[in-house]
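From the thread on structure requests for the teaching lab: each student submitted one protein with a one-line request. Submission from student K.M.:

"Model Methylated-DNA--protein-cysteine methyltransferase from Streptomyces liangshanensis, tokens only."
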Amino acid sequence: MTNAPDPETERLFEALPSYDNNALTRLEARLAAQAEEAGILDVAYRTLDTPAGNLLLAATEEGLVKVAYAVQDHTAVLRKLAETIGPRILHAPARLDEASRQMDEYFAGRRTRFDLALDWRLSKGFRREVLSHLGEIGYGHTESYAEVAVASGSPRAVRAVGTACATNPLPVVVPCHRVVRSDGSAGQYVGGADAKHLLLTLETAA
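Reply posted by the TA:
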């Protein structure tokens, strides 16, 4: 047996003309709040416009679980989250308010480190070891893939470090953009070469 919407939600549905974006926003917020309160929201998400493009932010009750660039196809990302975490996914920006605020501060050059609860379930094993180390690379600094491999306890696993960075579920927050090739060139990046250049330039300029 499913729970019926409360009277206020029903009233919003009834009063909702197709062109009333404000009413739609209010309805969406109310449904998100009800799902959160009932404990039936697996993943909340929102998008955020940044100098590096439109980012998808997604969070579980445990914390931020995914950051995705537009080039990764946000629809595909949400579909994958539904498969790996749970199907109850809703555009619920309130859960991402703090993450969005810190992202804005970072891109404005006012934040050098993120202070957010993170849900690490999308990374396991050696990849998780690599990502855990990335937060130790200082703002405005870089390390080579080889240096990260050594720091992660497997000096020969340079390719595996590259794979860990390429599959990082939390780019920007977990700074895989600070990992570069041994010759100093930027190397590849999940958000594309332009996004990596932007992030490195932002940090070195500050």
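TA comment: The CA atoms of residues 51 and 167 lie 22 Å apart. The chain has two domains: 10-108, 125-205.
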